[in-house]
Each structure stands twice: as C-alpha cells, then as structure tokens.
Amino acid sequence: YNGTPLRAEQVGFIPTEPYLYDYLTVGEFYRFYAALMQLKLRDSYLFEIDKELLIKELSTGMRRKVYLNVVLQKESDLYIFDEPFNGLDIETVYTLRRLIKNLAEEHIVLMASHLLESLQSCKMIFVVKDRKVTAVAPPDYNTIETILFQDWYEKQTLPILFSRALYRDGYHSKNILPASDKLLYSAGSILRLCGA
Question: Does a cis peptide bond (omega within 30 degrees of 0) precede residue 5?
Fold first, then answer.
C-alpha cells in the first residue's frame, strides 16, 4: 500500500463466520477486542446491540453486526469483507453498502461474494473460475455471466432452462422433473432466473 507492505494491524478483516466467544456478553466482547487492539472503548457503535446479551444467543446477523462494530472501530488501510451481506436484514445491508462505498473512497476495500448484485458499486470485479482469475473493469455483468456460465450455456438450451420449474396448483407444489434431470444449482438460482 503506497509502496510498502501492509502489516496485519493495517488490515480490517470481516470473515463470513465471525470469530466470537459464545460465553461473553456483547459488552464484554467489545471490551476484550478494545484491550486486544489497544483501542479506547467506544460508547456507541455503528449497529446498536444490547450489550448484556450473551453472544451465543445472537442470530447470524446480530453476530455479524457485533463483529463489524469491533473491526470498524479502528481505521484500516485495507478492508476485506468475505460475503459481507450474509444473514443481514435489509436495513443493515443498506447501511453496510453505504459504509463500504464510503470506505472505498480513501481505503482499499476487497469484497468476496457469490452474489453479483452485491458487487454493483465495485469499480473492478475479479472473477475466479477453474483456478483462473479474470479482471473485469468497469464491471460488465454480461461479460461476468459469460465467464461464469460459458460451459453451462454450451450444454444447455433455453427450453430446458424454462422446463426446470415447480408446478403449483394452489394446493400442491411438486417438481415436475425426473430426479435425474435435477442437475442445476442447488440454491434454486435457475428457478429464480426463470421467474418461479
């Protein structure tokens, strides 16, 4: 960064699964992290969370908010967000997107995500597929889609894409495809692409 290697303390890392101590309260974790990083304990944080709650009682989104609160209390030169929007409610996603955009104005911000729509405000996207990295700048979603799905497109046709849907008659929901035909995207992304 600016011609010199970064030290660990210059990096703010927010992993997919935050590393938290289940049997500490939120307030105790804030104090622990501040002491560990030699920071002054704050009175308020970006996300308001009851400091008396045990961490093990928190939902995925609340745990992420606690971790964001502690990591973001210290300014870093490089921020790494791994799947930053997983488990967060809509309001928090909006707040975090704005924060990331503001951080990127004066810092290096890297985000890893499987959701293209979460990368809309990025200046450059690096697509990793089959151990190859391709830079796409400015982000062109048609190019990214081609990189990601080229092999799939060559094997499939549009009628097959639309045949992969659920039949709903108001009372029942069943898959109208034979089991051997269910080979695409376990998360159902094709069904969402088809409007199901």
Answer: no
Which residue type sits at 173? S
Which pair of structure tokens corresponds to residue 39?
A: 């920071």
Residue 128 in this model has a pLDDT that exceeds 90: no
Integer CA distances (angstroms), 125 to 41, 53, 58, 148, 175, in order: 36, 38, 33, 13, 36
**CA-angle at 184, arms to 181 and 190, nearest 5°:** 115
Q: Which two tokens stand for residue 95?
A: 């707040």
DSSP state of 37: T
Q: What is the SS3 assignment for 128?
A: strand
DSSP 135-173: EESS--HHHHHHHHHHHHHHH--HHHHHH--EEE-SS-E
> Rounded to an integer, what distance in angstroms lies between the CA atom of residue 52 and that of residue 24?
9
> What DSSP designation does 48 have?
-
CA-to-CA distance for 108 and 170, rounded, in angstroms?
A: 50
Q: Name the residue type at position 113.
A: S
Prediction pTM value: 0.71
pLDDT of residue 156: 60
Query: Is residue 72 a contact partner of residue 46, using CB atoms and an 8 Å limit?
Result: yes
Which tens digit of pLDDT belongs to each residue from 70-127? 999 999 999 999 999 988 999 999 999 999 999 999 999 999 888 877 777 788 888 8
